[in-house]
Specification:
Distance between the termini: 18 Å
Mean pLDDT: 91
Helix content: 55-70%
Order of helices and strands: HHHHHHHHHHHHHHHH
Shape: globular
Number of helices: 16
Structural class: mainly alpha
Number of strands: 0
Radius of gyration: 21 Å
Low-confidence stretches: 359-367
Length: about 375
């Protein structure tokens, strides 16, 4: 039976990612008000859980084929988004030069053939198009991670933690020539640790064990951490207080390197959500069906959210900035469009299930439209 809580949390994460990418006047404040971690952390963690549920028990060769097919779909979607971003840049840049810079495409047209080749090789990742590539790499690595998991869970976690630690301390990263830092915004060598933690959690769920068993002291500790993290993160972001621990604070919350406080925070958030009965009730309630559908069909919903956020970002650059009411209207409309798409895809999926089964079954694993 499918665990609807995962889809609910994934769907909610998609809408929060859209709100952050749209660059509304309140986007940064909304993001930091949730603590040291944000929707991206939760989505990567749940992608690991989903990957374990989908591919974790397959034989190595079958896992390579299934994960490889899924990675190819993500790669094709990524290239389509790059093409659409380039088209938007050509159409809108003459009217608003800042838009090209906002999409991090200002350097593209100086050497378009080279940049296209770099985009195909995933070393030119313009603004907000650096998320699907990390999932592509994780899916390609997943069969090896599952193979190691079956042989030694401690070795998998220890190896992943060492890669995370070394890459974070040594600032090892992959190149991204679209950004001033010339590196991926989400360092995959760091973020793989969160994905691996998700695999371990998903493996527990697949085996029929409690993914995050309830304990009152752990629950209280997770709640206390989240209650402290949210005001501290917001206060530092807004400049209301100096960062705790001085410059060390920024290392502990670095998004590029998936820093320790982010990992603790997202695990605490997931622990709370998983053990609050209301969340499980809502996941199965018709009122949350659109969010659950968005989590199930996360790839097309995410792609639409990326395009809508780019449009909203362009609207925010109008000579007269949109009012707060207009920004809220854009947020609601953008979320509604994503949920409508999710519901249409879910209805189509259910309609296909009601069709008569073919006389001869074809091999392979049924694939959804999720990112992970």
């Amino acid at each position: 039976m499918r665990e609807h809580r995962i889809d609910l949390l994934r769907g909610l994460s998609l809408l929060l990612i859209f709100a952050a990418h749209a660059r509304f006047g309140f986007s940064d404040r909304l993001q930091h008000a949730r603590g040291f971690a944000d929707a991206a952390d939760l989505f990567v963690l749940l992608a690991g859980v989903s990957a374990a549920l989908a591919y974790g028990r397959l034989a190595f060769a079958d896992g390579v084929r299934a994960a490889g097919r899924r990675a190819l779909v993500l790669y094709e979607t990524h290239l389509l988004l790059v093409a659409l971003f380039l088209s938007a840049s050509l159409l809108l840049a003459p009217f608003e030069p800042r838009y090209e810079a906002a999409l991090e495409l200002a350097d593209f047209w100086s050497a378009p053939v080279l940049r296209l080749a770099e985009a195909a090789l995933l070393v030119f990742l313009p603004g907000n198009l650096d998320i699907l590539p990390i999932y592509i790499l994780f899916l390609l690595a997943a069969p090896a991670l599952f193979w190691l998991r079956r042989r030694s869970l401690p070795l998998l976690l220890l190896g992943s933690a060492l890669v995370w630690l070394v890459s974070g301390l040594a600032r090892v990263n992959l190149p991204n020539f679209a950004l001033p830092e010339q590196a991926w915004y989400f360092d995959p060598l760091s973020w793989q640790f969160l994905f691996v933690i998700g695999i371990v959690l998903g493996d527990r769920l697949k085996a029929g064990r409690p993914m995050l068993p309830f304990h009152p002291l752990v629950f209280a500790g997770a709640a206390l951490f989240c209650l402290i993290a949210a005001p501290v993160s917001l206060s530092v972001s807004e400049g209301w207080i100096a960062p705790p621990f001085g410059s060390l604070y920024h290392l502990l919350v670095s998004k590029t390197n998936c820093a320790p406080l982010r990992i603790v925070n997202v695990l605490a958030l997931l622990y709370l959500a998983w053990n609050i009965r209301l969340v499980a009730t809502l996941a199965d309630h018709p009122i949350c069906r659109p969010l659950v559908a968005a989590g199930r069909h996360s790839l097309p919903v995410f792609a639409l959210g990326i395009l809508l956020s780019a449009a909203a970002e362009g609207a925010m650059m109008a000579p007269q900035a949109p009012s707060l009411l207009s920004q809220l209207a854009m947020l609601v409309l953008g979320c509604a469009l994503q949920l409508v798409l999710a519901l249409r895809l879910e209805r189509r999926r259910l309609a296909r299930r009601r069709l008569p089964a073919p006389a001869i079954a074809t091999g392979g694993l049924p694939s959804g439209q999720s990112i992970g």
